[in-house]
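queue> pop job 88
queue> type: inverse folding (structure -> sequence)
queue> payload:
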């Protein structure tokens, strides 16, 4: 459980770095086309909805593929947006595709992560584990957007999104490649206990 929590923390931090910076990116891509961001948000929502409807996809124990795959799709979408002008298709179509891809990745990760928390956490520790998760994610929601704004001002939106997308995809590939070593059922109870012990020492 501790490895899943760490994996989620890294991904959530990177995602929140860019989450509030999409407006800056779309202004760089095409300042005159204000509708592009609306297209992107709508497509992302549709992708997430599709994954929610396919909730059975999260059954099983292949967390590395599902959590890592979600990050790979989100990362590809974020990095892909920076190359819209080089796409061999109309920009609105490329925006819709990137948005839908991000939505699928987001839904894949959220469903699997919540499933893993409920399935792998020992009953006696469920409340404490969810409390730790909410505390950590709340801290990320406060700090990461501030850092993201600073990076956009310093590096520019395109470079920030490219680096963040590539890094997130790399983290996802690492989860796919090595996740089975850390996220087995046999180690879930021990990992949850160690996470609680760390909280008590803090």
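queue> result:
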């Amino acid at each position: 459980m501790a490895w899943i929590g760490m994996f989620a923390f890294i991904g959530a931090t990177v995602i929140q770095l860019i989450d509030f910076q999409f407006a800056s990116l779309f202004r760089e891509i095409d300042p005159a086309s204000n509708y592009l961001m609306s297209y992107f948000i709508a497509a992302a929502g549709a992708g997430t909805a599709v994954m929610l409807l396919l909730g059975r996809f999260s059954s099983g124990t292949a967390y590395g593929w599902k959590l890592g795959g979600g990050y790979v799709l989100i990362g590809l979408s974020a990095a892909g947006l920076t190359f819209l002008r080089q796409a061999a298709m109309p920009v609105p179509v490329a925006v819709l595709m990137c948005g839908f891809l991000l939505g699928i990745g987001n839904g894949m990760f959220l469903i699997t992560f919540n499933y893993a928390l409920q399935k792998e956490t020992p009953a006696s520790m469920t409340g404490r584990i969810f409390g730790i998760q909410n505390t950590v994610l709340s801290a990320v929601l406060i700090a990461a957007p501030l850092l993201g704004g600073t990076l956009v001002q310093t590096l520019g939106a395109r470079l920030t999104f490219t680096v963040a997308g590539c890094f997130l995809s790399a983290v996802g590939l690492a989860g796919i490649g090595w996740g089975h070593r850390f996220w087995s059922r046999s180690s879930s109870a021990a990992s949850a206990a160690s996470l609680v012990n760390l909280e008590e020492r803090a």
